[in-house]
Amino acid sequence: KRETQLALTWQCPSNIAIVKYWGKRENQIPCNSSLSLTLSNSYTEVKLALQKKETVSPVELDYFFEGQKNEKFSERVAKYMQDNARFFPFLTDYAVRIDSENSFPHSAGIASSASAFGAIALSLYEATYRLENKELDQEFYHVASNLARLGSGSASRSMFANWAEWGKNTLIPGSSDEFAIPVTEIHANFSNMYDAILIVEDEPKKVSSSAGHSLMNNHQYADQRFLQANERTARLAEVLKNGDYAEFIHIAESEALTLHAMMMTSVDYYLLMKPGTLLAIERLLEYRRETGIPVCFTLDAGPNVHVLYPEQYKDKVESFIMNDLQDTYKKVIFDKQGTGPVSVK
Ligand code: PMV
């Protein structure tokens, strides 16, 4: 039995996009910029262990998800390591074991690729740093974001606390297609957001997000959509600064519906919303009209509804979710704005 030479652990949170990334080019370059909220309770924990190989050889990976060998994802991760081997020079000398676990229930319908690839990129890249005796610095997170992107686009944004932007945007200094950047000028209104995830359906997605992205390649509305998303990303960065709830709500909800409208209007059209999705949205809009509370919804590429609200309305909105929406979902995961990835010592 080989001895473990280096072991390390990272927890990387998931994120929810307010302006959506939908459509990509070669090499995981996004067709438009996007902006997301980093979550807290929904994260992936990756334990990485390196063992010295007897002979120099290409990638050797043992990948376990929640204690089980997962061949399909293992192949994807091995290919990812191979393709990006220049960032992980130790791969020729060390065999890798990855044990991955999600904090949220399996098949909860939460997109886990952002947190999973975030944690994988952080762990592999920290191994490079450790074997070179380097301390983690700003540059580490910057490159880790690039590496996370190469695994799953949205993972690039999970590297940072609170709000993060990804994708070249002429109105956002420092933005890049290759890595995400933290959005740091935030009004008090948006400094403590909550996200209750209504799990309307917990079956695996019918259409993968890569298949969805590729349907934007010959989508009739693609150019207008990319333009709109870029404008909205810049606008949202302004709104986060000036605290305008009304405009935030407008951007968030229109983005959710536009994402789904793109799916419904692609050449191979499809529909991911379920009756519970629409019921929850309608009741939420009515609740906002009646109470004036700045609560809104967004959707990911699936039927689940993310309900967003600032901390000061937490009790009211959560009792509304429990009492008036409970027949629209199977379970609810209460999450909130988070402080970014954690290296577990
Ligand atoms: O990172 P991917 O390739 O799984 O794409 C995610 C796309 C959305 O979740 C629908 C939107 C986003 O920006 O996160």
UniProtKB/TrEMBL annotation:
Origin superkingdom: Bacteria
UniProt keyword terms in alphabetical order: ATP-binding, Lipid biosynthesis, Lipid metabolism, Lyase, Nucleotide-binding
Record keyword Protein transport present: no
Species: Wandonia haliotis
InterPro entries: GHMP_kinase_C_sf, Mev_decarb, MVD-like_N, Mvd1_C, Ribosomal_Su5_D2-typ_SF, Ribsml_uS5_D2-typ_fold_subgr
Boundaries of every Mvd1 C-terminal domain copy: 197-327
Pfam families: MDD_C, MVD-like_N
Coiled-coil stretches noted in the UniProt entry, renumbered to this chain: none
GN (gene name): mvaD
Protein name: Diphosphomevalonate decarboxylase
